[in-house]
Amino acid sequence: MCTEKTINGIIQQHAEENWQKLQGSDYPAEWLNQHQNAITEILGLSPFVAEVALTKPDVFTRIVMHQWHKQVDIDQVCSEFTARLAETDSEEKLLAALRLFRAEQMAALAWRDLTNRQTIQTSLSQTSKLADTLIMAAYNWLYQAHSARYGVPQGPDGPQPMLILGMGKLGGKELNFSSDIDLIFSYPYKGETDHPRKPIENQQFFTKLAQRLIAALNKTTPLGQVFRVDMRLRPFGDSGPLVAHFGALEDYYQDQGRQWERYAMIKARILNPASHYASQLEAILAPFIYRRYLDFTTIDAIRDMKRLISKELRRRRLTGNIKLGAGGIREVEFFAQSFQLIHGGRETTLQSRELQPVLTRLAALQIIESQAISQLLEDYYFLRKTEHTLQQFNDEQTQMLPDNSWTQAVIARVMAFPDYQAFLTTLTVVMERVHAQFNQLVSEPGDEQQEQDSLFSRCKDAWLLEMSETEFCELLSDTLDEGSAQALFEQLRDFKGQLSRHRIGQRGEDTLGKLMPEMIYYMLRQCATNITQLLPRLISVISAITGRTTYLDLLHENPDVLKQLIKLCARSAWITEQIRSFPLLLDELLTPLYLQQQQTSLPVVYEEYTDELRQSLLRVEPDDTELLMEQWRQFKLCQQLRIAASDISGSLPIAKVSDKLTVLAEVLLQAVFKSAWQQLTDKFGAPSHLRQDETGFLIVGYGKLGGYELGYGSDLDLVFIHNAPQDSETNGTKKVSAQQFYIKLAQRIMHLLNTRTLSGQLYEADLRLRPSGNSGLLCCHLSGFEHYQEEEAWTWEHQALVRARSILGDEPLLEAFKQVRNRVLQRQRQRELSSLANEVVKMRLKMRDHLLDNQASGLDLKQCEGGITDIEFMVQFWVLGYSHQFPALTQWPDNLRIIEQVQQAGLISKIAAENLQSAYLTLRDHYHQLTLAGEKFAHSNEELEAVRKLVTTQWQQTFNQA
């Protein structure tokens, strides 16, 4: 560390080294000797100025000859430059002129500052003036060039300018020596330029102009850079348009503006000259920034921002940072701007962009004691002088105290301390005083210590604070391994990027700011081992509801709902997708008792679902088909969620899950049929052959519906049958034949089932199992169905008939269908049993070849050897091959009870039957869990291999015997 003895020596040593370099350059020796004292004074204080001297001799010579390093009329210097620039005839020369002027004036300014020829207040003002001049000179030149090429964007008050808002310290005329500049661009009105041949839209004109202006300032050339330009403060940040017209700007700040944007806008200053257009923009922004009443939401927002600053200090341990550290420049600025937000609407004298007038007026208004303000201003300028000295050393944007002896020596010299340690001692006192003032601002009891070390506090930091991946991983190191923490960091970072493109408004952003830490906290508590798979699922749900703050509030205000959501999403990708697609399901989580289904009998379940559906439709007019369809779908979604949640929790075994899903489909089919029947009879009347309370119509369910084995997302295999005589027609004023009526009825049912509404599809219904398949009638006569099954159906169609049953219809039709089914299934096949076995086996192998993906990484539990379909085919073979001997085999359409009947008929042993039933339930349970997990293939394990071996053994025994 530098001491008093070494400061002068270090500075003198570097001054001499740089002087030697200058003597070896192209400067005339006589000229150098003439100005040696002045030049060597600065060469030991700033490598930046020394670099300008060595690489830009013309620039350095002008500084010395015009004595700009001593005293300067900055307004005159800037006016002369602006006049010269107007004569520039190419964009290439424009870029060069800007960079040379910047180098010249900033080197001269650093010279004046480091030799203490002017106050820090003057330096801040001059830096800001130079920035204004460079920005506006470049803008004016480019505006003229673009107008000459594209025409002028005219408005009601003459040519429209692109109004440039300088933000932050630029707006407050307190710009750092080496600083980014934050800008926002706007223009008054949409329209077109006045080019006589090829006008372009104003938006296009100003976007091109903005892009060229940013490039003119930001681009690094051999002559350097003017300013790093940051446009992220504009509406919607990086995802927003580069330039917005006044109307869009006003809409954004009215509807979408955040509290931090109000805070940022306090310092927003229009760099363009005063005009009617500029006044319009001021009038748009003022109501957004300053409220006419004491705004308590602002106080809460300031408290939140203050808490974030404090947490960042603790987390990042920002020692040695005179801007962001405890008691740094940021805390002074935050102190002043907070009072502006709270009181500025009523006390218009506080509506200033510059810090010193604001603090002075706080004292005048007796909001803060005069002595405290005087001390705060003194401390602020001490910090700003230190900051400028740090940055003028090497023209770097830094606020970190140095660890090298040269910079330490320069700071001690410029700040007028005998040694660097003395400077540090004073700096510590200054920053402690500033931090004490900061802590008194809208403070809460204990808010500095509250949950500092708790997991929840760290989760808040993880979401709310900007941090690097390393910092994030360290924050959660005692909870997550490094790989999981890295994945979590990337997922949260990407989600924040998505949010910047959402228009969720201040309320939504505030709620999300509270909800996300809670969600991360409960995830880590409940599912830390699965968090990298779980978070994307939860984010998909949150993304779906970001525009609907009611649902965000629901999750934030009901921790049990949030915990339940996390639990369900952790266990099921299918449930996640359902909730993501249909957020109304979140309401179901408010009543967790609903999610614990009871194991009741099918008739009781049918009655419960029917009653619940009836109650949900009480407020729906019967003729409001659209609302009716929506209610059916919402009812199905809610009931499915309840069933799935119970499935996950283990309160429902697999057979009961399928029972409930099947009964749910039956209840909804009944409702759909009633509605379709009412609509058709209102239009055409009823078929004349019917007696009272008859419909002459039957819905038959095949496959999973017929076998009481529906799963999540299963489609419905249906066949429609009627019993109308050939000459029957409807009895309405608009008559149609009965056959045509039933075809229209089938079409209407299919429409009501298959149509997608906001809540999706009710069911995907499939009619391909009807007689003659897709080429057959949508609704066939009972006699036609019977004839087809008796004379034309293939063996595989009889296999399908094994799992067919009546879902709804008139009693005579129900009985007639049952008789047809029994007669067909119980028929003694004319071919030998071995022929039937060969046909079934051949069909099974053909299906496996067609449907089984041999390249898949896991097991297809339906189509693999020893899988679900093998059991189904064995069951169908037993029914077709033996029911003429054992009619009880056709009594039931579901596999479990058929296997029981097969055992009672003596076709297999009791042990074999129990093993086969157990294998079937195991495979179906795994298949259900795959569906819930959003996966198609299972991972092989000992249990599945044992089951498959058992099924394959039974398969071989069954068909070898045949």
UniProtKB/TrEMBL annotation:
Signal peptide (UniProt feature, chain positions): none
Named cofactor requirement(s): Mg(2+)
Top-level division of the source organism's lineage: Bacteria
Keyword set includes S-adenosyl-L-methionine: no
Gene3D superfamilies to which the protein is assigned, alphabetical: 1.20.120.1510, Beta Polymerase, domain 2, Nucleotidyltransferases domain 2
InterPro entries reported for this sequence: GlnE, GlnE_rpt_dom, NT_sf, PII_UdlTrfase/GS_AdlTrfase
Protein keywords: ATP-binding, Ligase, Magnesium, Multifunctional enzyme, Nucleotide-binding, Nucleotidyltransferase, Transferase
Biological process according to GO: regulation of glutamine family amino acid metabolic process
GO CC annotation, single: cytosol
Pfam hit, one: GlnE
Record-level Gene Ontology MF annotations: [glutamate-ammonia-ligase] adenylyltransferase activity; [glutamine synthetase]-adenylyl-L-tyrosine phosphorylase activity; ATP binding; ligase activity; magnesium ion binding
Keyword Nucleotidyltransferase: yes
Region (Adenylyl transferase): 456-962
Domain (Glutamate-ammonia ligase adenylyltransferase repeated): residue spans on this chain: 38-276, 562-818
Ranges for domain PII-uridylyltransferase/Glutamine-synthetase adenylyltransferase: 303-441, 856-936
Region listing for Adenylyl removase, in residue ranges: 1-446
EC annotation from Swiss-Prot or TrEMBL: 2.7.7.89, 2.7.7.42
Catalytic reaction annotation: [glutamine synthetase]-L-tyrosine + ATP = [glutamine synthetase]-O(4)-(5'-adenylyl)-L-tyrosine + diphosphate; [glutamine synthetase]-O(4)-(5'-adenylyl)-L-tyrosine + phosphate = [glutamine synthetase]-L-tyrosine + ADP
Family to which the UniProt record says this protein belongs: Belongs to the GlnE family.
Biological role: Involved in the regulation of glutamine synthetase GlnA, a key enzyme in the process to assimilate ammonia. When cellular nitrogen levels are high, the C-terminal adenylyl transferase (AT) inactivates GlnA by covalent transfer of an adenylyl group from ATP to specific tyrosine residue of GlnA, thus reducing its activity. Conversely, when nitrogen levels are low, the N-terminal adenylyl removase (AR) activates GlnA by removing the adenylyl group by phosphorolysis, increasing its activity.
Matches recorded under PANTHER family: BIFUNCTIONAL GLUTAMINE SYNTHETASE ADENYLYLTRANSFERASE_ADENYLYL-REMOVING ENZYME, GLUTAMINE SYNTHETASE ADENYLYLTRANSFERASE
Name under which the protein is recorded: Bifunctional glutamine synthetase adenylyltransferase/adenylyl-removing enzyme
Organism encoding this protein: Alteromonas alba
